[in-house]
Every structure is written in structure tokens, then in C-alpha cells.
Amino acid sequence: MQDRDPSAQPRQSTGRRATGTAGGILAALAIAAAKFKALAALLLSFKWLVFAPKILLSFGTMFLSVWFYALVFGGWKIGIVFVLMILVHELGHLLTFRNFGVRASLPYFIPGFGAFVSSPMSADPTRNAVAALMGPVFGVAAAAACWGYGIATGEQFWIACAYIGFFLNLFNLLPAFPFDGGRIAGAIDGRLWIAGIVLLVGFIVYFHAYTAFTILILLFVLANSLPRIAAAFRGQVDPSMQVVSAGPRMTLALFYFALIAIAVAGAAATAHHSAAVR
Cα–Cα distance between 94 and 42 in angstroms, integer? Predict the structure, then answer.
């Protein structure tokens, strides 16, 4: 009979422990590698590389606009309020487009000229008009919320914010291109664009806004509106713009003019608080 080596059992046990330890380390390394691979795949995915610059560009233009309006109006408060009101307005367009299943970009800001959401025009002119209308709807609603909060708390700053919101969205409701009001007016009756030009000229004269900036806006509006007005009188209608059915046109006109009335009333009621935002 062969004698059993007394050291064999410990060696075997030690070997199993070493194998188990090595297996555990390898398993841990495998899990870590899998997690790293998933993270690397996320960071290096094509969609992320495309989307990240868009986010940076959107936020970058927003902060640049805050800086611009702070310089123009002499204070960071008013710069921030301006940009936030514009942002809420543009989110109204963005959410409406996406609710309709239409791809739309993040808001991009142009200092001094507001902001825009890039989206292809739908084949349905009613949807295009509603998407144009919802920007001012969101903006006026935000202004009304600031007004209500200011009244409830007695803080004049929020009422001044409300004035900015009402005024900005009222200006944007002018029935002239490239304002939202121009697109809405085109869906109702293109001849309303004439009123938009008259109102803009009246605004410049009434407020004595004879600056290079306002003149540039007027020229931009004329360049965009006059060809469309001439085409409208010739009976040339953009099928993606004008709502042909009488029912939707009447409903759109009702909401459009009601929103203008609300913005006018809100701006008039909060105008004397406008200095509090500085």
C-alpha cells in the first residue's frame, strides 16, 4: 500500500483557493471591461457626437444673448429675463412640432434678433399655423404666470418680468414676416401682411425708435413681406401656408386676435413696473 503524502491535501486546497481567487479577479476584470466598453460605446456613438455639439451650440448662443442684452439694457437681470422669456416662447414651437411628429432643432439664439427653432414645414398648413401660434401662447402664459406671482408676493420684479414677456410676444404677433404673426396671418389671409408693415412703422414712429437696429428690422420685414403680399394679390398661394377650409381659418383667426388682445392688455397693465427689472 502506498503511503499518502500528508502535504497533498493542503496543496490541493491551496490550489483551489488560488484558482478561485484568480477566477474572481478575472470575473471582476471582465465586468469592469464590459462596463468600460458600454461607456466607451456611449461616448463614441455617432448620435452622441452629433447631438453634443448641438446642445453646446444652443446653450452657447443662449449665454451669449444674455451677455448681449445685459450690455444693451444695462443689467444682468434684464438680460436673463429677456432670454428666459424667449426660451419659453421657442419651447412652445419645439414641443408643438414634436407633438405633431415633426423633427425640430433645439432653440438657437441670435443676439438682438431673438431665437429660432429649425424644422421642416409640414404638408398640413393648419399644423404649421398652430406651431407658429403656440410660441406666443407659451410666452404670454409665462408672462401671465409672472404677473400672478408678482401680485401674490407683492414683488415688483416679477410684474416687470411679466411686462417684458407680454411686450416681446406682442411684438412677435405682428402680422408680418419673419415674425410668427406673419405665418399665422398668412394662414388666415395674406393681405393682413399689409397691416403688419403699417403697425411696425407705427411702432417705430410712436416710440421714436429711429435706430440702426429698428431700421434694419424694418428693411428685413419689407424684404420678406412685400414679395408675399404681391403674390397674394396675384392669387398665388403657398399651399403649405394658407388654410383653405373656412372652419379652421375662423378658429385660427379667433385665437390669434384673442391672443393679441390679451398681450396688449397685459403689457398695458404692467408697463409702469418695467423699471423694477433693472
Answer: 26
